[in-house]
């Protein structure tokens, strides 16, 4: 996992960004978060170079950094922190992600086809025109996600969480959503066609939205959604 060392700037509680040695390898002892680091452009270039030169990225803290038009096809990210980062214009395939953090990150106009992400967090993230078709997104945290004109089609979302997610013009066609939790979602023009919605978990209000019924004669609490 990435280092949990706090930023050295007085009063700052954010984690320090990863630093690099003269050979471009990650070292312990990063000092400042993105907001307080000097020579931001130089540091961003070091992060880009590290990702470009490694197929397996372990323990990288790049929180708050913007990633535009870079290729991360078939690269693996393990125990990394990309919270509050921006990913724009990325067209990559076959990314592997394990136990990494993308909380409150923004993904825009990007393709991550056949992404393989397990045990990772995208809480509070924003997806705009993002294509994740054919991905394995198992036991991931999408709570508070805001998704606009994006696709999870043909993906395995087993036991992931979308609690309080805002889903607009977003597609979950032909997905495995067994034990996937959709408590208190807000939805507009969302399709679950050919997905196993009977195996997903909705709260009472969410289930009523899917069936179009004003009331459901069901026990209070968790219940299964209908097949669409």
Short description:
This protein has 228 residues and is mainly beta. Helices cover 10% and strands 24% of the residues. The longest helix is centred in the first third of the chain and has 14 residues, at 40-53.
List the helices and strands and how they pair.
Blueprint lengths: L18 E2 L5 E2 L12 H14 L2 E3 L7 E3 L7 E3 L7 E3 L2 E3 L2 E3 L7 E8 L2 E3 L7 E6 L4 E3 L7 E3 L17 E3 L17 E3 L12 E2 L1 H8 L11 E2 L4
Parallel strand pairs: 3-5, 4-6, 5-8, 6-9, 7-9, 8-10, 9-11, 10-12, 11-13, 13-14, 14-15
Antiparallel strand pairs: 1-2, 16-17
Computed over alpha carbons, the radius of gyration is: 19 Å
Q: How would a crystallographer describe the biggest sheet?
A: 8 strands, parallel
* Run of helices and strands: EEHEEEEEEEEEEEEEEHE
Shape: elongated
* Share of residues in helices: under 10%
Proportion of residues in β-strands: 15-25%
Oligomer: single chain
Helix/strand/pairing class, anyone? mainly beta
End-to-end gap: 40 Å
How many DSSP H or I helices?
2
Kindly state the mean pLDDT as a whole number?
Answer: 87
Low-confidence stretches: 211-228
Number of strands: 17
Q: How is this structure best described in words?
A:
The structure is a single chain. Strand 1 and strand 2 form a beta hairpin. The chain contains two helices and 17 strands. The chain starts with 18 loop residues before the first strand and ends with a strand. It is mainly beta and 228 residues long. Strands 4, 6, 7, 9, 11, 13, 14 and 15 form an eight-stranded parallel beta sheet that branches.
């Amino acid at each position: 996992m990435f280092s949990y060392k706090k930023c050295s700037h007085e009063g700052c509680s954010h984690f320090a960004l990863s630093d690099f040695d003269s050979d471009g390898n990650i070292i312990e002892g990063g000092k400042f978060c993105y907001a307080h680091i000097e020579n931001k452009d130089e540091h961003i270039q070091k992060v880009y170079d590290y990702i470009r030169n490694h197929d397996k990225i372990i323990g990288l803290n790049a929180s708050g950094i913007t990633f535009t038009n870079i290729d991360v096809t078939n690269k693996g990210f393990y125990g990394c922190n990309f919270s509050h980062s921006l990913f724009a214009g990325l067209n990559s395939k076959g990314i592997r992600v394990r136990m990494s953090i993308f909380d409150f990150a923004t993904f825009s106009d990007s393709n991550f086809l056949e992404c393989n992400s397990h045990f990772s967090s995208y809480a509070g993230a924003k997806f705009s025109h993002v294509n994740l078709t054919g991905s394995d997104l198992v036991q991931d945290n999408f709570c508070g996600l805001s998704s606009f004109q994006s696709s999870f089609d043909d993906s395995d979302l087993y036991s992931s969480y979308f609690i309080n997610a805002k889903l607009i013009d977003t597609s979950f066609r032909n997905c495995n959503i067994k034990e996937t939790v959709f408590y208190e979602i807000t939805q507009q023009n969302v399709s679950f066609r050919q997905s196993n919605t009977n195996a997903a978990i909705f709260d009472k209000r969410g289930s009523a939205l899917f069936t179009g019924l004003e009331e459901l004669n069901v026990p209070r609490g968790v219940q299964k959604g209908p097949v669409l």
